[in-house]
Amino acid sequence: MKRVVIVNGPNLNLLGKREPHIYGTRSQEDLKQVVQDRAGKLGFEVSFFQSNHEGELIDFLQKEGPGSAGIVINPGALSHYSLALYDCLQALALPVVEVHLSNIHAREEFRSRSVTARAARGVITGLGFAGYELALEFLATEQK
Ligand code: DQA
């Protein structure tokens, strides 16, 4: 079975508690369930990981990325400045979809720029959990 890698960056472990008016009331466990259900329907296994540490995210991507069908990543605030994460995604040479729960273009100015997005095939922003599901749908179309 093909595997997809789902990665959440800093503070996404706080989903459900963190600014619920922006990020919603469902937890990261809920997100994991939604992702696993959708991935299962699409015939994917899931490697799911969250970390508050840039280096840990990079280590995980370097280890789990190769051989996978692609990456769905919400880098959190690292999107706005992590060139190391950008380099890591570029080096993997896999289809990458960047996801943001909130619409980064409708918030503070600094959020509207993503340096990691340049390594992505596309970005889904503002659609909440559905963004992860749509990203998986895209990766499934890439398999055909
Ligand atoms: C986020 C948007 C980022 O600007 C923010 O730093 C996050 C979450 C989102 O999912 O909307 O941590 O990536």
Main sheet: which strands, in order across? 2-1-3-4-5
CATH fold name: Rossmann fold
Computed Rg: 14 Å
Give the CA-based shape: globular
Q: Which molecules are bound in this entry? A: 1,3,4-trihydroxy-5-OXO-cyclohexanecarboxylic acid
Tally of contiguous helical segments = 5
Cα(first) to Cα(last) distance is 14 Å
Mean residue pLDDT:
97
| Approximate strand percentage | 15-25%
Looking at CATH, the homologous superfamily is Dehydroquinase, class II
Describe what this molecule looks like in 3D:
With 144 residues, the protein is an alpha/beta fold. It has one domain (2-142): Rossmann fold (3-Layer(aba) Sandwich), CATH 3.40.50. The chain has five helices and five strands, in the order βααβαβαββα. It has helices at 20-23, 28-41, 54-64, 83-92, 129-142; strands at 2-8, 44-50, 70-74, 96-100, 122-125. Helix 4 (83-92) links the parallel strand 3 and strand 4 (96-100). The mean pLDDT is 97. Bound molecules: 1,3,4-trihydroxy-5-OXO-cyclohexanecarboxylic acid (DQA).
